[in-house]
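Possible race condition, two jobs.
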Amino acid sequence: MKLKNYILTGIVILTCLNAFAQYSKQKKADNLFNKFSFVNAAEVYHDLLNKNYNAHYATRQLADSYAFMRNADSAVVYYKKAIDQNNNIPSEYLYNYAQALRAVGDYKESRKWLKAYKKTGGKVNNDITKDGDFLSSIFNAKQQYFLTDVKLNSKYSDFGAYKNNGKIYFVSSRRIKAGFKNTYGWDGEPFLDIYSTNNITDSITPHKAKLKGCINSMYHEGPVTITKDGKTMYFSRSAFNKNTLDQTEDGTTNLKIYKASLVDGKWSNIEDLSFNNISYSNGHPALSNDESKLYFTSDMPGGNGGSDIYYVDINEDGSFSKPTNLGTTVNTNKNESFPFVNSEGILFFASDGHPGLGMLDVFGTTIDKQNNILSVINLGVPVNSNKDDFSFFMDEDGLSGFFASNREGGLGGDDIYAYDRVPQLVLEGTIIDANTNEPLNNALVTLKDVNGNKIADLVTDENGYYEINIDRDTEYVLNTKKENFVNIDQNVTTKNVKRSVSRITNNISLDPVSEEELPIEELYPIYFDFNKYDIRRDGTVELDRIVNLMLNVYPSMVIQIESHTDSRGSAKYNNKLSQERAKATYEYLVKKGVSPDRITEYKGWGKQKLVNKCDGTNNCTEEEHQLNRRTQFIVVKMK
């Protein structure tokens, strides 16, 4: 016996370790997905699918990953699998599937699923469903970002927030004191300087926050990018030499990119980079994650439009290669600017040339395994607005960061906004037999609001697993039912759930109704005529017998009513007909004296649960069809 217990204990430990390993993989995949690293995320989701871990979720994420990689053919395959796997799939996936079908040219099927999406109450933004722009359509079908308060903004322009080693650097045209600072002739505001703070949610004292050292001059500086060790800074500055502006023949002063070193806590050793030229502007520097490349904005000759995004390689000796234009996938015939590269090597930038909401919008890119840029994605509302939105920054966690905008409601010309990218909240769990610990498949899980209104229901899979999307800061009631088990109601709350949490696990144990408690008499089904829901004479005989059992023999018995149709007719019609049959049965029992609280539910299943092979593909007699037109009674509780 001891040996047997040791073996069982070992099996349990191995099972738990394996489950933990797969859960860790899922977290890794989700993190990669949040950082736009869709190629790497897809590989991990594939591995989870191969191990059959949370397959429904992995399939959906894999479909989205392929869509964002512009692999519409694979996206169609996995969106279809996701929808086929789960009748209760979130409606956004119907929309995603429709857009992916549109991208592969299957317009007829796309219209079908777009219609199905609209039936769920979904709304379609016609401005975003242009040919070739289905990625932005899919991305914007989901709420991605939530804005939080930033108190360091001034009545002037503030932008370019960038986090490095616990400090937040930003650019501002604020005055330190009245009459002290030069103004810029173009907009009449003071010239831009670089500031730093430890907390973006606190207001700052300008003269204390202004960057120490010789970076800030009497002209424009910023924005910045800094190496991971915090010792080297690249920044934009108005081109000048020995306190004199470098100007072109027509009197224009352009931007240059400079390099500075941190020495004794101050920035010094300012270097003019070799690829600068007073004839055009280079600005908005951004280091790649491995610090081997420096991205920047330039209006140098030979570009695609007003300003383009380029990069230079940073050689081991500190020198720079010639600038390389990122090409027409990123650059348009208008203006691209403010590049940023996140920890997974994904480029973000601002553009007024790609389809957007108005003026400058923020875009992300998708890449293949060779790091080639495949496409761009508009980040949508609330990051983007109908005004200028730019200088996007994403923190290491992929869930938070900053951007700037001159949208209405701000404090100054440009304002810094902090965002949190809150992942979808999912309630999941496994339902087991409390006596045997075996998983219970086909258990019915119903999610209700606190007023008892049904939100959604689903059945567990072969592993007893269920999963459903839920809202944050909301109270729910979760009802779980299984034939011959005691059903239970649970209160579920998502209030005070941290934004970093994406999944809530709620495992459920159901107690079986003991054989001694089950009624000796069987509750037989009643049958209906074709296309009818009124109770037949033979049905009243059986219903009267059930009434007697419930009132006189088993006064604590609680039942559930399930009604069905045969296979003839549409699914929509049969669902309605079966619900009418269930309602008629319920009303008969209640009218005869059965208390409504002893009938947990009356539900019509349409033609989903046939008892024979009469599914429309076989020739069946009327007697065989009759067996499917029935109402069944399930004992769910013996109080």
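Job #2 (started ~2 s after job #1):
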Amino acid sequence: MQIEPDNPMNMKLRIAVFLCRAIPLSVRRIIAISLARTATHLSFKHKLIAVHNLTRSFPEKSLSEILQILKASYASFLLIFAEFSEILYMNKDNLDQWVSVRGLDHYEKACRDGKGVLLFTGHFGNWEIGNAA
């Protein structure tokens, strides 16, 4: 990802990324999880909206299950935020530290055999990292 140095917003982004990366990723992840635990208690209004939306989306779930989903959603969002600054430094040499690919041999064989390939993927984490892969 290229950042245009002349844009003042990009300079702020560079500073934010620099400050964020000054904290080791493992510590940022711990901070993110800790913040997620407290985030559900910060704004009753937003928690109520989220619980309402989740209840409408998953009517078969109990309130306890809905609250677990809410906490997991907050944790997922904050983990993405904690990992985001790493994306600027991803490249072909270090991408395997973030993403694992299974079944690549099937893809390569199909390409060698001149067959079409349909790829399916799921994401279980940071969307931006998956896009980088």
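The CA atoms of residues 36 and 77 lie 9 Å apart.
Logs attached separately.
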